[in-house]
Amino acid sequence: MTVALFIILFILFLFIWLFFDYRFGRNDHLRFAKKMESPILKGEFEIFAHGKELFADYFHSLEQAQASIDIVFYIVRNDAFSHKFLSLLKTKAGEGVQVRLLLDQFGSLKFPKKLAADLRDAGVAFRYSSRVKFPFLFYSSQVRNHRKITVIDGKIGYLGGFNIGKEYIGFDPKLTPWRDYHLKITGEGVRFLQQVFFHDWQEDWQKKTHKEVSVIPPHDHNYAVETAAEWTFHSEGAVHFSDKRNHMVAHRLLATEANLLEDPYIQHIHSAKESIIIGTPYFIPSKSVFTSLLQALRRGVKLTVIVPATADHILVQEASYRYFRTLLREGAAVYQFNNGFYHAKTIVIDNAVYAIGTANFDKRSFFLNKEINCYFYDSRFQKRVMAIIQQDIHDSQRLSLEDLNKPNVLRSVKEGIAGAISYFL
What we know:
The protein is α/β, with parallel strands linked by helices and 425 residues long. It has 13 helices and 20 strands. The chain folds into 2 domains: 213 residues, Endonuclease, Chain A (2-Layer Sandwich); 142 residues, 2-Layer Sandwich (Endonuclease, Chain A), CATH 3.30.870. The protein starts with a helix and ends in a 5-residue tail after the last helix.
C-alpha cells in the first residue's frame, strides 16, 4: 500500500511539475519572443527540389567562400555525408574563412562530442541553439531551432527544408527519394538572413534584453553500400528550376518563434478568394488555423493539401486524420505523395502569394519552434514553383473519406493517442 501510494504521489507531482514548468516557461518565452520581418526586398532566386542537386550547388558555394560562412541547421547527422560537410567547413576555417556552425541541441542530439571538439580544434566556431535551461527544463526542451539558414560571404543565402544527412540525398531506403524545397538567394534578402542567424547565435550566450540585435557583418563508420563515387553529386534527371537571366524577384522574409506564426497564416487564409495550396510533411493545425480553413472552404475557396504517404515519425500521420475527415466532408482535396518522402513546406494563396521555408503546418511550428519563411510575389518565379507543386500532386494519390472511415482498430487507437499529444508531435 505504501509503494502504491508513493507511485500515485510521484505521478501527481510529475504532472503538477510539468504543468507549471510548461506554463511559466511559455510565459517567459513569450516575454522575449521576437518576430523578425523584412520589408519587400529584391533578389535573385533558385529553387531546388532534389538533395543531390542542392548539395552540389551548396558545396560549390561553400568551397568558394572567401570571408565568412554562417550556418544554422536543425539536424546534422553522424554519417558519411555529414562528415564530408564537416570536413569542408574545417578546410575553409583552415584557409582563414570565419566559419560559424549552430545546431539545434535536440535535433542534433546524436551529434558526437568528438565531432564538435574536432570542429573547434580546426577553428570552426561551434554552438548549440535552444539549449535545455533551468528552471523550465521541460518547456525549454520543447523549443527547437528549426531554421535552416546558410549565409556565405554576406552575399549568398540558402533557406529551406533540407538538413545534413544521408537521407536527404537518397540513401535511406524507407524515405527515398527525399522531396523538399530549398531556396538559394542573392541580393537584399541575404542581409536579413544574416541578421536572423546572429540573433540565434547570440541569444543563448548573452543576457536577454528587449534591444534589437545588431547585425555582425561578414568580412569512422562502415557503410557497405556507400562508395566514394556515390558521394559525387549529379542530377539523375532531377528537374532544377532556376532563372539565369538575373531576374529580380520581389520577396519578404519572416522569422518567428513561440506563437508568432499562427496569426500570419490566419491572415493569409482569410485573404484567400479562390484557392489555397498547402504542402507539409505534418498537418496538425491549431484550432484557430483549422477554423480559418473551414471558413475558407465554406465561402467557396478551393483547398488542396499535399502530405507524404509514408510517415517519418511515429503518430504524426494519425494526428492528421481527424482534420482530414472534416476537410474532406467540406470538399477539400488531400493528396498523399507516394514518390518517396515529402518534406516540403509551402503555402500558396490565390496563385498570388507563395511561401517556402522551414515551418511545418503543425502546432509545434506555430507555437514552439523558431522558423523562417520566404514569401515571394513574382509571377515568373511563381510559375517555376507551381510547376514543382503540380508535379508533386501528379506523383500523389488522392485521399478519400471512404479510406479514412474504414474500420481499423489499431489506427483508431493511434489516432486517440496522437490527438492527446498533438501539440508536441
